[in-house]
Amino acid sequence: MSLKLGVNIDHIATLRQARRATYPDPLMAAELCLWVGADYIVVHARNDERHITEKDLAQLCKYYGKKIHLECNFSEKMQKLALKYKPGSVCIVPEQPGEITTQGGLKFTPKNFDRIRAMTEALQKKGIKVSLFVDPDSASLRAAARCGADVVELCTRAYSEATTKKEQAKCLRELALASLLAKELGMEVHAGHGLNYENVLAVADLCGVSCMNIGFAIIAHAVLAGLPQAVCAMKERL
Known about the structure:
The chain is built from 11 helices and 8 strands. By secondary structure, it is α/β, with parallel strands linked by helices.
């Protein structure tokens, strides 16, 4: 069975923002990705708008609506942004000031848990599917289920950064168990973070995983090979 592929186009916008230019255009990138087989488009709206801006999100949701998967933190500001533009789905992720990329899954402290659950419910009331970005451990998965998440996206950072086959195998076992538990808890399972053309297959083979969200590796490959070819190459692997 072919897995779904969500293509994160943040770094199309990163390139544009490096010169504060009007190109390359994320909207055009989204069109190309969908045209050659991507199942949906992923964008991460950050407080500092280092890549995707509110204007980008507005345009993407206007033209591609349900095909847009928004990643954002669980602040009230981001909740309002999501409710304003109504993407097809939202993945709630942790966000730390100054981080280069997301460092891991959500931490379900009592305060965070209540805020995440409130945002989840608010989005679902407006017909927006909600995913929570979590580490592959049972406590996080059970907390996500209590929040009412439709989907969990398993953080594959530890797996993608493993430096030995033994460490990589251990991470894969944890992901496999997490996927099975998530399914038992009634949640759809996605995976992402640091996945590339070399390491994606082992995760794609895990029972229960239905979608991979991949960005940097595809965009980096596209710089040399072209965006349609880069998306097609990843889609073929899935």
